[in-house]
Recover the amino acids of this structure.
């Protein structure tokens, strides 16, 4: 790929960047086996506490740890201030976009985005047309994936506006770091993150249906076999709300109730962690056992708030992503603070021609793919894989986008051979309700295999504690 | 609280209690196997116990004859048999995992590490496991779980449902142990002709009742007193009366609009044991009494389920 990735810790050689000086000095002073010991300690603790994710398609009840790396990713204060402003701006625009799409569709009328791109998208939900949601907020919880390129610039790689996950690891990683290395926290002013559940609960309460003074908020999970179940249980516990499954809920007279030991109890806000498709078998997939029959009727009547709203997928689809900077200009009249990664849209003939001629250098992504699946990384692919993608692109170009192979920034990471640079990204969690808030930092994911750019936990990625330094 | 959550809590504690009860039975027979007995006596006694626990059919599918080590391994370590200690610990942990957000983190970690330890012990070297040590460990983990439950949980509905699960299961277990020994508990055996004093002391020890017996009666062990201790003593933690009292009291704390009849039946069971005398139970026949008791307990469990835990679907 040619470009040298940006190293988060070191300037060149072994000179630390200013915001990492304290840490690297501490690191140099650590006796040889202490880090290995601490890492083993962390693994044992994560197992006992059961911070695991379920693995699909393996032995029943198989649970794995997401590898936790003990070297933190540190962000200096000034960088975070800028990132935070950019993230808030982006999520405001995305919420405005979703509201517009399900109401007047001004952005389509203005010709900023081709109408068929939106209206023919499988994530567009005609059931939401004309439905008003409290505060006009659709993406209450957004996970925006940020990468840093070889020049040190932050770019948005992806918006996750449906059911973004990972925040529990952000919280548990911090807890673990404070337990393993308390001395680091007395030497650094690290912005705290553990109030996230309070902020989330406050945010969810703020979007309750109009007229509900003391809303009952619940978290809807697909159940203990879901890969993110730990996070669902964790968040419900931290917020002190019920963790419900579809079978615990029912709809009567356009209102949602849960079955309790004291009879039915009304539910006002549903923080759901299952996809639109499974939410209501009467409207979406009829074979869904996870949802609640009649939920959409209650929703459209304004008797319950669903977070995130139904139909947010229309804004985080990879085919819509290239237009987000335009949305920011269109709705907010501002220049985007954080840019996109350059993206070729393959339904567009000019872009397609370029991409087909440069496949071995590019990353090609399926528009609806997620979790690092359905992706071609040109430089790492075999000839056969490239030809296979070429055929698929020619057959159905609208299903693909392409991006340059990014030299994602690296951060020293503890691997078997010792400390070595590994590629990382960052997923901050942006909460929208009465206001837009972000707990400083987010989840840093790291590709543990040497040279790998895939940070997804389902494909061998790990996580790091993320520090935002206070001044 | 959510009905499903209450249901998981209830079963979580039932399974832990069941693991402990089975461990106690294994412990008892394991100790007996160390006494100078004829092999037939031990096999008979194991056969009766398995019968009382409805385990004999599942056992017969795997083994031709009753042989102590095979029985111990079957009801302790067998991964396919749903009644084994292994399976109970797994079910307890699965129920806990389904509601881990409603448990205190101490309780969840206790149940989780119990299961992880049991699994690694059993999967790694099931043929070399010292059964005596293993069941001792299971009892300790159960004690620990109960202690953590009582020591960390808020006194709310969730707590009461775990207690109901614990004591229903314990009542069931004690009644079944008595059933397995009902032939020896007939009043005739009382006239100074103690069939096997060692056996009684082993049974009492397995139920943590030996020292209690000594303090209460300060005398030799007779079957009739054993029955009285395990059925009618209010101060004996594993007696039927004590368990029914706990079930009744906890049930009253969670009462809802439809649970009146369930509460009445629980109260009736408690009152009946509270005012009963051993002579009456013997006159009516101890086996019949135990059979009726188990049937009532079963009915109570079903009623608790439909009143609170798995309410019939909303029309």
């Amino acid at each position: 790929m040619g470009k040298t990735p940006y190293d988060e810790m070191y300037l060149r050689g072994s000179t630390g960047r200013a915001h990492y000086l304290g840490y690297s000095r501490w690191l140099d002073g650590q006796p040889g086996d202490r880090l290995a010991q601490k890492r083993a300690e962390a693994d044992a603790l994560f197992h006992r506490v059961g911070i695991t994710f379920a693995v699909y398609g393996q032995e029943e009840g198989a649970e794995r740890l997401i590898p936790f790396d003990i070297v933190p990713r540190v962000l200096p204060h000034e960088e975070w201030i800028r990132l935070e402003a950019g993230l808030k701006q982006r999520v405001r625009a995305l919420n405005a976009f979703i509201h517009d799409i399900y109401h007047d569709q001004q952005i389509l009328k203005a010709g900023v985005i081709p109408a068929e791109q939106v209206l023919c998208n499988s994530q567009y939900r005609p059931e939401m047309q004309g439905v008003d949601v409290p505060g006009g907020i659709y993406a209450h919880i957004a996970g925006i994936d940020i990468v840093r390129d070889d020049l040190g610039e932050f770019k948005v790689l992806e918006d996750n506006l449906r059911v973004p996950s990972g925040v529990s690891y952000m919280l548990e990683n911090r807890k673990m770091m404070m337990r393993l290395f308390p001395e680091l926290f007395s030497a650094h002013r690290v912005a705290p993150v553990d109030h996230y559940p309070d902020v989330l609960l406050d945010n969810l309460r703020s979007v309750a249906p109009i007229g509900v003074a003391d809303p009952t908020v619940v978290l809807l999970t697909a159940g203990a076999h879901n890969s993110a179940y730990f996070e669902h249980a964790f968040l419900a516990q931290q917020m002190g709300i019920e963790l419900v499954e579809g079978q615990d809920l029912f709809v009567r007279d356009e209102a949602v109730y849960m079955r309790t030991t004291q009879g039915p109890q009304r539910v006002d806000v549903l923080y759901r962690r299952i996809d639109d498709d499974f939410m209501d078998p009467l409207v979406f997939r009829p074979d869904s056992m996870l949802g609640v029959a009649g939920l959409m009727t209650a929703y459209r009547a304004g008797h319950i708030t669903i977070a995130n709203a139904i139909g947010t997928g229309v804004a985080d689809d990879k085919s819509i992503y290239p237009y987000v900077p335009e949305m920011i200009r269109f709705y907010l009249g501002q220049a985007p603070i954080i840019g996109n990664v350059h993206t070729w849209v393959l339904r567009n003939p000019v872009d397609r021609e370029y991409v087909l001629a440069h496949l071995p250098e590019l990353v090609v992504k399926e528009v609806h793919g997620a979790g690092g699946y359905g992706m071609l990384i040109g430089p790492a692919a075999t000839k056969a894989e490239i030809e296979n993608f070429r055929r698929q692109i020619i057959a159905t170009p609208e299903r693909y986008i392409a991006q340059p192979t990014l030299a994602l920034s690296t951060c020293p990471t503890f691997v078997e051979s010792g400390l070595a640079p590994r590629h990382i990204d960052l997923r901050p969690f942006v909460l929208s309700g009465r206001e837009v808030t972000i707990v400083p930092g987010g989840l840093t994911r790291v590709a543990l295999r040497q040279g790998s750019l895939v940070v997804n936990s389902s494909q061998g990625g790990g996580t790091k504690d993320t520090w935002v330094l206070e001044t | 609280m959510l009905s499903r959550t209450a249901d998981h809590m209830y079963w979580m504690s039932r399974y832990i209690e069941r693991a402990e009860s089975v461990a106690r039975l294994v412990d008892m027979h394991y100790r007996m196997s160390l006494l100078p007995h004829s092999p037939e006596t031990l096999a008979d006694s194991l056969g009766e116990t398995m019968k009382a626990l409805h385990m004999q059919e599942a056992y017969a599918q795997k083994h031709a004859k009753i042989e102590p080590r095979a029985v111990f391994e079957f009801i302790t370590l067998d991964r396919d048999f749903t009644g084994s200690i292994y399976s109970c610990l797994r079910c307890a942990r699965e129920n806990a995992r389904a509601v881990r957000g409603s448990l205190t983190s101490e309780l969840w970690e206790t149940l989780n590490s119990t299961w992880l330890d049991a699994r690694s012990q059993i999967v790694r070297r099931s043929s070399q496991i010292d059964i005596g040590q293993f069941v001792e460990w299971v009892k300790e983990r159960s004690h620990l779980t109960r202690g953590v439950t009582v020591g960390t949980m808020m006194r709310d509905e969730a707590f009461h449902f775990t207690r109901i699960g614990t004591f229903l299961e314990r009542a069931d277990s004690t009644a079944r142990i008595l059933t397995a020994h009902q032939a020896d508990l007939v009043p005739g055996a009382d006239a100074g002709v103690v069939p096997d004093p060692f056996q009684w002391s082993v049974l009492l020890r397995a139920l943590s009742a030996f020292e209690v017996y000594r303090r209460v009666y300060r005398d030799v062990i007779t079957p009739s007193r054993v029955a009285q201790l395990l059925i009618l003593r209010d101060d004996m933690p594993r007696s039927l009366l004590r368990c029914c009292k706990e079930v009744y009291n906890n049930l009253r704390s969670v009462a809802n609009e439809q649970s009146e009849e369930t509460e009445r039946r629980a109260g009736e069971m408690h009152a009946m044991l509270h005012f009963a005398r051993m002579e009456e139970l013997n006159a009516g026949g101890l086996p019949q009494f135990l059979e009726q008791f188990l049937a009532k307990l079963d009915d109570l469990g079903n009623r608790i389920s439909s009143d609170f835990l798995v309410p019939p679907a909303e029309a």
Q: What stands out?
A: DSSP finds 15 helices and no strands in chain B. Chain B has two domains: 1-153, 156-315. Confidence is low (pLDDT under 50) at residues 190-194 of chain B.
